[in-house]
Structure formats: C-alpha cells, structure tokens
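User: We ran a pulldown and think these components assemble together. Before we commit to crystallization trials, I'd like a predicted model of the whole complex to look at. Sequences follow.
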Amino acid sequence: DQQVKQNSPSLSVQEGRISILNCDYTNSMFDYFLWYKKYPAEGPTFLISISSIKDKNEDGRFTVFLNKSAKHLSLHIVPSQPGDSAVYFCAASVSQGGSEKLVFGKGTKLTVNP
Amino acid sequence: NAGVTQTPKFRILKIGQSMTLQCTQDMNHNYMYWYRQDPGMGLKLIYYSVGAGITDKGEVPNGYNVSRSTTEDFPLRLELAAPSQTSVYFCASMGSADTQYFGPGTRLTVL
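Assistant: Here's a predicted model for the assembly, 225 residues in total across the polymer chains.
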C-alpha cells in the first residue's frame, strides 16, 4: 500500500516557466512533509519542508503548498532553471515512539529545457 | 565536515556471498537510517537507529542486519546475497531538525 504517491513519473518545462510537482498521501497521521532533490549518482539532498500546521512554506524559488483536507502537497519552482533538472522525491514523516521515519514517493523526474 | 560518507561506491557480489556496507557521519546525529532504492521506485527503509546500541527494523529488513556501536557508524550487513538485493543503498542521518542527510550511495549488483 503506497502511502505517498507521486503520480507523474516525469515532467518537462521550459526554462523560466513554473514547474509544479504534485504529491498525494493517504495516512492522516503524517505531520511533516519534505521534498528532496536527487541528481544521478548522488544521494538525495533536502530541498524544502512543511509542517502540517502550515499550508505554505517558501524558500527562494521554491514554494511548497499543503492541502490537508485533500491530503495533497505540491512543490512550485519559479522560475525553473536547467540546473533544476533532477528527480524530486516527496516524503512524509511518521513520528512513532520518538523515532522519525520517512515514507517516500517514487519520485518525479523534472527536465527543464533551455 | 564530510557529512555522511558511504563505502564502497560500487560492488558486485556473487549469490551467497556476504558483505558489509559502511556508513559514517561526522555531525553527531543520533538518528541513522539505511534505505534501498530500486529502479523507478522510491526509497524504502531497511533499518534505522535512534542512538548507539539501539536499532530497529524498517519496511524491508529481510536479508540484512545492522549494528550501532558508536554514534558515528552504522554498518549494514548482507549475509547471503541474493539477486533481489541488487539495488542502490543510501545511508542517512538526522539530528534534531527533522531533516535527513544522505550519503552518496552504494550501487550493489548481485549476480
């Protein structure tokens, strides 16, 4: 049972335009959400996060929106740059007994064309 | 400050062989994790540790073992390698900020 779903395996946008990556989750106990970016042959790197008590978090060109009622979050990149081309993973945090475990989606491969 | 380091970067094993994937972090983080990523899939948690001497199973622990004798090190052991364990393995650590930091990964092929 996939608790975190990224239904678009890939997305292609033009440089300078907006990239919107989507993520849905099923577990209402998730209280923290993160986006990671991964380049080939490297480990994932943290990009941006949002707590369930907020509905928006912004960091430069990156904004994450959370819609708890729809169990949906999205990552907006404006403007998109060729260096943003990577695989983006959505992750949700489950706090159990003091440990922090992440559940990851399958990822969306973003290609930004010059 | 190297962050999270993993060795080796690549390894080819024969079925039935054993090996240990090494992971070290220099950030004094209590939490450490092992994930595997299969092609086209997300990361799946194998084992995790909340501190030295404490480990617990994740989503896909079968065929693996871990130990955590120090804060810095969290090795992952494969005892009898199987083709199903062909994957990319990532180690991660986390301090108090709910953000996991990942190593560069170990690409393992079992033939």
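The CA atoms of residues 52 and 69 of chain B lie 5 Å apart. That may be worth checking against your pulldown data before setting up trials.

User: Thanks, that helps.
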